[in-house]
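2024-03-11 09:14:02 INFO receiving multi-entity request
2024-03-11 09:14:02 INFO entity count = two
2024-03-11 09:14:03 INFO echoing inputs for audit
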Amino acid sequence: MTADAATLAAIATNRFGFGARPGELLAARSDPRGWILQTLRHPYRPPDELAGLASGQELLAAFLAVRAERAAERRAGGRAGAGTTAAPAGLDTVRERLLPHYVAQAAARCRVAIASDTSFRERLVHFWSNHFAVSIDKPICLGLAGALENEAIRPYIDGRFEDLLYAVETHPAMITYLDNQRSMGLHSDLGQRVARRAPEAAQGRTGLNENLAREILELHTLGVDGGYSQADVTSFAAVITGWSIGGGEGRFAAGEPGAFVFRDALHEPGARVVLGRRYAEGGMAQGRAVLRDLAAHPSTARHLAKKLARHFVADDPPAELIERLTRAYMVHDGHLPAVYEALVRADLAWRSEAYKYKQPCEFIYSTLRALDVAPREPRPLLGSFEALGQRHWSPGSPAGWPDSAADWDGADALMQRIQWSVALGERVGDAHPALDTAEAALGPLATAHTRTALERAASGSQAIALLLMSPEFQRR
Amino acid sequence: MRTRRDFLAAGAQLSLGALLVQALPGVSFAALPGAGPFVVVILRGALDGLSAVPPFGDPDYRNARGPIAIARPGEPNGALDLDGFFGLHPSMPLLHGRYQAGELLVVHATASAYRERSHFDGQNVLENGGEHPSGSASGWLNRALGALPGRGIDGLALGQNVPLILRGPVPVGSWAPSALPEVEPELIARLRDLYSDDPTLAARLDAATRMDALAGEESASGAMGGAMTGAATRAPGSGGIGRLKTIAETAGRMIAAPGGPRIAVLDAQGWDTHAGEGGAAGQLAGRLGGLDQVLDALRSGLGTEWQRTAVLVCTEFGRTVQVNGTGGTDHGTGSAAFLLGGAVRGGRVLADWPGLGERHRYQGRDLMPTADLRSFAKGILRDHVGVPEARLADVFPDSAQVSVARDLLRG
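2024-03-11 09:21:47 INFO inference complete, emitting structure
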């Protein structure tokens, strides 16, 4: 509990940041807590590495354009063979056009994470991006997931949760990932029109899609045990009908292509009750009011507090720590820096035992930071994340990547890390004396056992592999 | 209209709760020495059982499903007939072949103990084998392994990491194709020494080296993009089925090898069809077609060992009976499951069919579950894997009311 200054500096850089770069242990030593918190003292400015990336709106517009081209081709090609293709048309073209954007985004994200001297802030960006996960397994989200992080998360992580929540839920990435763009009230203008004109065609085209509403309640705000019911899900889904994107096909063409739009014609009219509170009709404002109340709800405070504590401190974080963060959230009206500060100031977060097994991305970032290596070519760099099982923005579900050792410490996963470390060791070779690197990255956390193993290694490159695979480098 | 068929004989738990708990020990003990391999395939995201196994004979089916309904057998793009009431989705011809060979048992209107609609809680319940999402940090397959005499590494997760269903005190292996070069044994020895004070990492390293030895040359044959070698990144979303087929086929060989694992788990994602689900063609059809091939790859990897194998394909819950406003289906309750393999007494559909009319549905919206998935799992564990009946209560706690399904296997 009463660790010395050098140990506290090593914890500050490894547990709260993405791992120590050369010199950071010294920089953090005089005031480890202050070293962490100063990363949030400056107003937000986008990192230089992100300059020149296409916006989410541009990328979504490109996707919609491919889809429209394909639809036109199908119409021109007549009815021959219609409806029998197994794969949705145009997917290859979508990949071809959007993959370079994804690669550029992911590479930029890595460069920031590797080079950042404010890596606590950067870790928070990744934490929130994963909290509001959008997975590129869904073709439309290739490129959008990175845009969501840069546009709706980065600028909001040091403000109030309510604003972060609103920015995310109205970003085209989230709207399309969770299928809200065509969710339609049965009594909306459009719903009524379809039902009147072609009742037989209405099935599957009118009515709610409850995906976004459910995941906002379950994953983004209250948490699964946060006290909502199926009726709340359905009601909230009706509230956010009309939250859509511009430039779709047919009836959904209006609006700037790829941008968020509120489509009044889809919106289920009338007052709704969500979590026992009545929300008067108000178009877009009705949904915004529900989000505001969700952000202020004690279940949300607890849910977020627990996730933060789990991410930074331990898979099964101490109840006292969760309580402390929950209180900070409630007392400060969801002002996130107050919650971060409560975390950093808590002694429970500084225990010298490392409880967190690094996720693959943390392992890669901390390695490249320790070795001060920033690969220039994006594709081999991104291949590393893929090989170790954590391709950027692809958790495969809206729950995001899991955050416990049991999710990441499979036998084969360990073998992949070993193989990767060996390959990397062979690349950097003797340029990085492993003992010096261990001292600069781990300081007093490097055990005598590990130091001996490094001294006795058969080669410089083998020593690097052993350092990276040592128990103390695998945890934080 | 109701298709009870062999249901009573199977002894699965009825919604009526009318069945007596089967007290007879069955044939399990005699079967122990020759116990066969058991593979569980988890379809994450909630499989639409009403499309995978369309009940075309139900008078409400076509109406409820509208644009995503699968046509009757014999009609264009129609279902592959199973028993005149249920069919198989037309994109699964290989699986249909297994049915005709008597190696596929289809279970319908089934669910775990979970009755809410969160994927993640639903998967937790499916995997921890209890009644509550956070009830246990170990999975029922690991506890089943704990009830067997150990022979080394008996459990294998197909993937880099181990899903909850196989986690627990019994050490298990994991395996996935690697794009990275193999490591010299000399370095492994040094790491063994480095991990001598770290039992967790030591156990993982041990399991990894054993699984690599079993997989043999397959470990280098992965179709992944090269890491550190400059190869292009695999196009996201494109490599899913090909990779799974490679994994399934290798898994079959690992299981069939002498000293291979007796229990394995394979995950397949992407079943959450909220929008644009499609009918005979489209999104779900593509997924099911892929699953059809993955299961066949497993069979071909197993070779003759297929004859001694049972495979359970299951999901965390089903989807709404009614199509939603975006041509898809939302989270539901009852779904379908498959039990296949040469050891399975197949060619049958087990279903206490509740009907699809609104008043027959669970909460007016979902397929009513009438059979507890644990019943079939228990039956397989006892009669196929060789878990003593007395230990089933550890494997599935709080499930005394869930009977052990009988006669799932060839005699």
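2024-03-11 09:21:48 INFO post-check: Confidence is low (pLDDT under 50) at residues 1-33, 218-239 of chain B.
2024-03-11 09:21:48 INFO post-check: Chain B is about 30% helix and 10% strand.
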